[in-house]
Specification:
It contains 3 helices and no strands. The protein starts with a helix and ends with a helix. Helix 1 packs antiparallel against helix 2 and helix 2 crosses helix 3. The chain has one domain. The protein has 78 residues and is mainly alpha-helical.
């Protein structure tokens, strides 16, 4: 079951259609954040598991930040 929790942000990201990658990244970020809040402190996890967990949080965060920056760059300035 811990593998499912580790890969859940990636599963959420993969379920959303690729044409909506911005929403997929945001949903993956939310899933990673919720899992981080519910985590048991990381005790007893292997290095590989922790690496996937960190990447599951970092990649959706980077995609979401990139999307927000792109939207702001296209927005008309008043």
């Amino acid at each position: 079951m811990s593998y499912l929790r580790t890969f859940l942000p990636w599963i959420v990201f993969a379920v959303v259609p690729s044409s909506q990658w911005q929403w997929a990244a945001s949903a993956g970020l939310v899933a990673a954040a919720v899992l981080a809040l519910l985590a048991d402190g990381g005790s007893g996890h292997s290095t590989a598991s922790l690496t996937v967990r960190v990447a599951g949080f970092a990649v959706p965060t980077a995609f979401t930040v990139r999307h927000v920056a792109a939207v702001r760059a296209r927005a008309p300035r008043s």
